[in-house]
Amino acid sequence: MQRLLCVVVLVLAVALTGCQQKEQKPPLKIDAAGSHMTKKEEAVVVPDAVKTAWKAVKIAVLDKANVKETVYTIPIGSSFPVPESPMNIKVEAFLPSFIKEGFVMTSSSNELKNPAVQVKITESGNIVYNGWLFARFPSNTFIHPNYGFTLVDAVSAK
How confident is the model over 106-140, as pLDDT tens digits? Predict the structure, then answer.
């Protein structure tokens, strides 16, 4: 019986030692917006033809508490403080026909095939979302408990 107990203790000791020696994976890095960061940085390439064709985007902001939606026209490259709220929207880039090729996000044309806007949304100065709003997939983007944000349209430079 004592020999069996010694064997069981020895097997447990070896098993525990083996578990401790397993390679530890580093924790997954999460950015302020909750997105998984990649080893390679993603790049946004806005073609010159797109830069000159579009001047602003229309973003609908839903105030969930007051059940009120307002559409704001925000120039590309600017910040917009949402009236009567702690929210601010910075429009960083607009791609009328969003595509992703590897680590590069760009537009395949100037047609509104898959409109997307890259935004940085802050609440009281803190980043709560840094990513994309898609006109064709509004429910697959940023969700906030008090506000909703939807890309509605784009404003041509003409």
Answer: 999 999 999 999 999 999 999 999 999 999 987 66
Contacts of 117 (CB under 8 A, 6+ apart): 57, 59, 91, 93, 94, 95, 132, 133, 151, 154
The pLDDT, as a whole number, for residue 42 is 87
How many other C-beta atoms are found inside a 10 Å radius of the C-beta of residue 80? Answer: 17
Task: With residue 50 as reference, give the H or E element that holds it.
Answer: helix 48-53
Contact between 105 and 95 (Cβ < 8 Å) = yes
Q: How far apart are CA 146 and CA 152, in angstroms?
A: 19
* Residue whose structure tokens are 């602003």: 56
Q: Residue 23 gets which letter from DSSP?
A: P
Calculate the CA 93 to chain-centre distance: 13
